[in-house]
Amino acid sequence: MEIAIILAVMFGGAAFAFGSRWYSEEQQERRALAAAPRLSIGEVVDGEKVRIVGQTKALETVQAPFSGRTCVCWRVVVQDRSGNSRRVVVDEHDGLDFLVVDGTDRALVRVASAEVLLHKDRKYSSGFLKDPTPELKAFLDAHGIASEGAVFNKTLEFSEGVLEQGEIVAVLGVGSWQDDPDVAPSAGAGYRDTDAPLRLVMTSPEGGPLILTDEPYLII
């Protein structure tokens, strides 16, 4: 009987953990990206919710807070693993509007309201006998987070992902065709070769965010 109870508790805990992950907001966004129809930019109908994939082209850049890399947007997560728990103390992203280029067509991505799911390829840590780097310390100070506990350093884990110039990105949102201010009308470029060159503008769909990612399995 005791073994059965223990197994039931273990199974219940595992099922809860799996369910929490499966139904987490991020996992729902990943599934939405994977399920959305992928179209080339030139195939998108005005007002359609679609997934486009292409190469990033920066209009302006920002600097990632941990690595200092130049990019169009970044996301960082800080977790406190002091004691027996793991707690997210910072989950933050920032970026500027950028273009996605697909052949001869272009789409402007409005980043302000986007959910940013980036592959975190840089990881750092601090803890016992290991101070945070000056960059990490400055980030913690700016967020009002102490790196030290009562006696020793807190056990902190830092991860960072960036979307760089020329990187392949997938974007899920609603596309609308608008005049392209960067292409002269005489060029005859844009959606369906209209006289006034157009570019697609990707924005948030009704009832949900614009989602962008560089995660490999979502950009195929």
Could you tell me the strand content as a percent range? 35-45%
- Major sheet summary line: 5 strands, mixed, barrel
Q: Gap between N and C termini, in Å?
A: 50 Å
Class by helix and strand content?
A: alpha+beta
How do the helices and strands follow one another from N- to C-terminus? HHEEEEEEEEEHEEEE
| Count of helix runs | 3
Tell me roughly what share of residues is in helical segments: 10-25%
Provide the domain count: 1
Low-confidence stretches: 4-23
Number of strands: 13
Radius of gyration: 22 Å
- Provide mean pLDDT, rounded: 85
Strand order of the largest sheet: 1-6-7-12-11
Q: Tell me, what's the shape?
A: elongated
Structure, described:
The chain has 220 residues and is α+β, with helices and mostly antiparallel strands. It has one domain. The protein contains 3 helices and 13 strands. The chain has a 5-stranded mixed barrel. Strands 5-4-10-9 form a 4-stranded antiparallel β-sheet, with no helix packed on it. A hairpin with a 6-residue loop joins strand 4 and strand 5. The protein is elongated and about 70 Å long. It starts with a helix and ends in a 7-residue tail after the last strand.
